[in-house]
Amino acid sequence: VKALPRSFYARPALEVAPDLLNKVVVAGPCRGRIVEVEAYMGSIDPASHAYRGRTARNATMFGPPGHLYVYFTYGMHYCANVVSGVTSQVPRDDGQAVLLRALAPLAGLDEMRARRRAARRDRDLTNGPGKLCQALGLDRTHDGDDLVVPGAAVWVGDDGVAPPEVPARSTRIGISVARDEPWRWFVAGDPHVSGTRRASG
DNA sequence: CTTTGGATCGTCT
DNA sequence: GACGATCCAAAGG
C-alpha cells in the first residue's frame, strides 16, 4: 500500500471526493477501504463548517491539503475529513474537505470490535462517519494529522484498486442547508455504505 | 425490514 | 441558550 501524494489532495473537493473511493485508510493495525464520502465546499457551501470562516475548531481545514480534520458533534461522536482544496491557484485557502462516511473493514477487525461493542455484526463496524472514527480510535487528538506519511498514526494509501468507473452519487446526509447539492459518492451495492441509501442514486 | 425519540456537550450567537 | 456533517435501542409491520 502506497501513501497518496500531497498533490492528490491539492484539488477541489468535488474532484478529490470520488477519487478517494476504494483508497485505504490505515490507523495502526486497522485498515479500511473507503466506500462512501461527501464533499464540503468551504466558502461556497452553507453546509460546510468552513462556510463562516476560520475558527479554533475548524482551523485545520484552512491549512495545507492532505491533513485530517476531526470534529466532535452531537455531544458524543467524532467525524473525520480529508482536507483538500486548491492552494496554489487560490489566494487564500477555501476550507474545502471530504467527509469520510463509511469504510469496508480490511484488517484489525478485532481492535475495531473491541472499540465498537455496540456493533453486533461486522458490517456495522464502520458504516457511518461516527462509527468509523470509533472503530479506528480517531478523536480530536488526531485533528491536523498529516495523511501523506506512511506509518503515521493515520494515513491514506492506494493498494491498486481503482475507484469505480461510475460511482453512485446522491445528495448529502444529515444536513439542513444546501440539501440539493449532489456531493455524496459511494460504491454502489457495497454492504458497508451507511444507512439505507445503498442503491445507486 | 422501517420509524422514532433520547442521549449529550463543544461551539458559536 | 440553541443546535448539530450521529448513533442506538425499542417498538411496530
Alpha carbon gap, first and last residue: 31 Å
Q: Helical proportion?
A: 10-25%
Categorize the overall geometry: globular
State the helix count: 4
Based on secondary structure, the structural category is alpha+beta
Instruction: Give the integer mean of the pLDDT values.
Output: 94
Mind summarizing the main beta sheet?
9 strands, antiparallel
Along the chain, the helix and strand elements come as EHHEEEEEHHEEE
Radius of gyration: 15 Å
Descriptive labels:
alpha+beta, globular, single chain, 9-stranded antiparallel β-sheet, DNA-binding, 4 helices, 201 residues
Task: Describe the protein.
- Helix content is 13%, strand content 26%.
- It is of the alpha+beta class.
- Strand 4 (68-73) and strand 5 (77-83) form a beta hairpin.
- The protein is globular.
- The protein starts with a strand and ends in a 15-residue tail after the last strand.
- The protein binds a DNA duplex (13 and 13 nucleotides) through residues 38, 40, 47-49, 52, 55-57, 71-77, 79, 81, 99, 101, 118, 128-131, 134, 172-176, 196.
Summarize the structure.
By secondary structure, this protein is of the alpha+beta class. The protein has helices at about 5-10, 15-20, 110-115, 130-135, and strands at about 1-5, 25, 30-40, 70-75, 75-85, 95-105, 155-160, 170, 185. The protein contains 4 helices and 9 strands.
Write the layout of secondary structure elements.
Layout: E1 2-3, H1 6-9, H2 13-20, E2 24-27, E3 30-41, E4 68-73, E5 77-83, E6 96-107, H3 109-115, H4 129-136, E7 155-158, E8 168-170, E9 184-186
Antiparallel strand pairs: 1-7, 2-3, 2-7, 3-6, 3-9, 4-5, 5-6, 8-9
The structure holds a DNA duplex (13 and 13 nucleotides).
